[in-house]
Design goal:
Blueprint lengths: L7 H10 L7 H14 L5 H28 L4 H34 L10 H21 L1 H25 L11 H6 L5 H22 L17
Length: 227
């Protein structure tokens, strides 16, 4: 369960006011392609697809680091880094899956009809393509792969923060489902999605930490102590 002592509105505003990252060409191309597929407007369906893709690189890293542990068990320094990255990748993909379930529940509760880009065939093709991309990039450069993920997570954090700002009605929608309660105690859906945005910032920060860009980490009061 997440920490509810954080001022979520304050952190949402901090996200909206923070200067944007200078995304790499690869990241800009990905975001443009994603918008062409799903539309430029942020919707519950669009962020659901983001969450479906979000866990892919974490699974790729977990497998890669486990293989490294099996080969390099005599190198304590290498093993320590591989183990830390593997443990974080497992936790991050679990967190992204939790986001996915919450969004699916929200969409189901509102009885919204899913768009074509969430059809099983399209989702499978996108997941396969992104898995291949994530594997190839990690194979070429693990540091570059993690750096790309930091950009992905930064984009996700901003998308959620802007999405909540656009839907004032969520301030009045109570959170009553057991699944959402398991995630945390929230006064309304706006706060729950603000917390999801902050989770994405944590993933962004950890990605920058692991790819050697500690100067890009954005701290805040109440951020995970294990960082």
């Amino acid at each position: 369960m997440v920490d509810n002592r954080i001022d979520l509105k304050k952190e949402q505003q901090a996200t909206l006011e923070r200067p944007g990252l200078q995304y790499s060409f690869m990241a800009r191309l990905f975001f443009i392609s994603f918008d062409l597929l799903t539309g430029s407007k942020t919707t519950l369906f669009k962020v659901k697809l983001l969450e479906i893709l979000a866990g892919v690189p974490y699974r790729a890293w977990e497998i890669r680091q486990y293989q490294k542990l099996s080969r390099c068990y005599g190198n304590d320094k290498l093993m320590s880094r591989a183990r830390r990255l593997m443990v974080w990748a497992r936790a991050a993909q679990d967190n992204e899956y939790q986001h996915l379930l919450l969004l699916h529940e929200k969409i189901t509760a509102e009885k919204l009809k899913q768009p074509w880009f969430l059809s099983p065939l399209v989702v499978r093709l996108m997941v396969f393509s992104y898995r291949l991309f994530a594997w190839a990039l990690a194979k070429f450069s693990l540091r570059r792969s993690i750096g790309f993920n930091a950009e992905f997570e930064d984009h996700a954090e901003r998308s959620y923060a802007e999405f909540v700002r656009e839907h004032l009605e969520w301030e009045e929608q109570a959170v009553i489902s057991p699944l959402a309660k398991a995630y945390g105690e929230f006064a309304n859906w706006a706060d729950l999605l603000r917390r999801v945005s902050l989770d994405e910032r944590d993933h962004r920060n950890r990605s920058f930490h692991f790819c050697g860009r500690a100067q890009d980490v954005v701290g805040y009061e109440g951020m995970p102590e294990s960082f």
